[in-house]
Q: What sequence folds into this?
């Protein structure tokens, strides 16, 4: 266990470093016109975050024996969608956040209009990457990857989840409605990360379905833990102001069920995710990610 | 000429009606959750506009002998990108417009947050459509279509043009810099409309290049005429407040060169566009569109 954990830390650090380099290379350079827009896109994406979605894509890619060259493009596309959603989510008309990953948010640094356009352009770039690199042996499978990411990002995925969140703010939401929101808001993109990582290689249909069920459970666990950390975490550890959910009148899991029940729910979900992986080979890093999701403190 | 013009009006009306039906079918229905988001997406896209980009896609498709079934999907994808850009462009942090196509803008009708998300989700839907329908015989060519639209929408296309516009507002821009902005802000998506329409069928490389040069010239002519109409058009004919460019301190063609020179420039560009089509067969509707672009009064 000790050895496995150390291995996992090293693997995670390796993927994170690789992704940082890939994103720095794939984003337009800051000196290319329009320079301020490109600077904002890079600011919103680089040097930030745990890269949970890329980690999941790479770990799913191991199951499917995908090449790292393909995985870093697919993972970058998913991460750009995530980065754009954070920029727009932080805008004054949404959550009005001023701090993200320990830095001023994009609109504080670059102004609202540039932040809006940077988010828009990050979304476009995600689809450009998925289309312009060879990511699957069969181009039809690659079109399927574009469709998967677009559906996950859209009105019945992530953007839809943000809308549900918007409408739920300040209202008394039940646990099923709350989980419905999370399944869209963060779950859809996490599932897409796993699906795209797997699509860079080859999988049996039964394995593909097991990975998708794993991703659903991990995605929800991740969000429950995020809600918990918003209550218990310090601003320093989180890199953003704590207690924001409560201050914004947001529906959260601990808000209804209390901290103890929320923690139990997260552990149950991770148990379910691990059970899905039982028949799957080369899934050690997927398992470690699931465990890490509930144990992390930021 | 009389007969041709009447034919063209009928053709245009036919494409516009077909596109309205296609968009109504391809957009998520307003009763599907999240209903308010879907209502906003439909509001921002349906019953509006001249559908210049779909018209160009269909006319380019005629040259390439593409099927109407493919063309309406490709044209819808381009139109969704256009619709999203208008929603975001109208937001208070951008142009702060309250009227569009004779109706309150999306954020006036649905609130800023929902309008922001509706724009985001329209962009995702555009790429979903391009990936989930069969639009080209070779799936590699279809991936190329995704790449073309993504690049046209992104930081070195439309979004980049909006950033240049943002930075130019209130400053003294020369004509070359103004045209550089237009080439990105509206030109990139107009070129993509022609390219995607052509890609639904088959073209010689020389024809493809001629159509692209045509699209470049028509795109710029279209924007010069838009600037002219902002000065000379009535709010009633335009469906939006006139004189907005001047009020916002925007760089415009008539603003530098005067109305007469602006009109001459538009006619010169259309002449260039028509010259490009000389060796191209089945290009009558492309020709008529070019003429219509300079003659329209709204």
A:
């Amino acid at each position: 266990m000790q050895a496995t954990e150390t291995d996992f830390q090293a693997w995670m650090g390796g993927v994170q470093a690789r992704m940082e380099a890939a994103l720095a290379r794939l984003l337009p350079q800051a000196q290319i016109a329009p320079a301020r827009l490109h600077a904002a896109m890079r600011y919103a994406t680089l040097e930030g975050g745990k890269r949970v979605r890329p980690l999941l894509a790479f770990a799913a890619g191991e199951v499917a024996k995908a090449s790292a060259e393909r995985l870093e493009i697919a993972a970058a596309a998913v991460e750009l969608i995530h980065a754009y959603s954070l920029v727009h989510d932080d805008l004054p008309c949404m959550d009005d956040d001023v701090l993200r990953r320990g830095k001023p948010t994009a609109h504080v640094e670059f102004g609202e209009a540039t932040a809006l356009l940077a988010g828009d352009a990050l979304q476009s770039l995600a689809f450009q990457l998925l289309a312009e690199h060879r990511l699957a042996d069969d181009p039809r499978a690659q079109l399927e990857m574009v469709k998967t990411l677009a559906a996950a990002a859209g009105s019945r995925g992530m953007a839809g989840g943000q809308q549900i969140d918007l409408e739920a703010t300040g209202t008394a939401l039940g646990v099923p409605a709350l989980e419905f929101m999370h399944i869209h808001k963060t779950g859809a993109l996490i599932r897409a990360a796993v699906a795209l990582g797997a699509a860079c290689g080859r999988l049996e249909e039964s394995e593909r379905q097991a990975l998708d069920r794993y991703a659903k459970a991990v995605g929800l666990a991740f969000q429950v833990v995020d809600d918990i950390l918003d209550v218990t975490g310090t601003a320093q550890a989180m890199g953003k102001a704590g207690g924001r959910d409560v201050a914004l009148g947001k529906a959260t899991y601990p808000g209804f069920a209390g901290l103890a029940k929320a923690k139990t729910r997260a552990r149950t979900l991770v148990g379910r995710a691990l059970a899905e992986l039982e028949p799957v080979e080369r899934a050690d890093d997927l398992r470690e990610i699931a465990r890490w999701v509930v144990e992390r403190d930021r």
Observations:
- The domain at 2-292 of chain A is CATH 1.10.600.10 (Farnesyl Diphosphate Synthase).
- Chain A touches chain B through 56 residues (CB under 8 Å).
- The first strand of chain A starts at residue 99 and ends at 100.
- The CA atoms of residues 27 and 136 of chain A lie 22 Å apart.
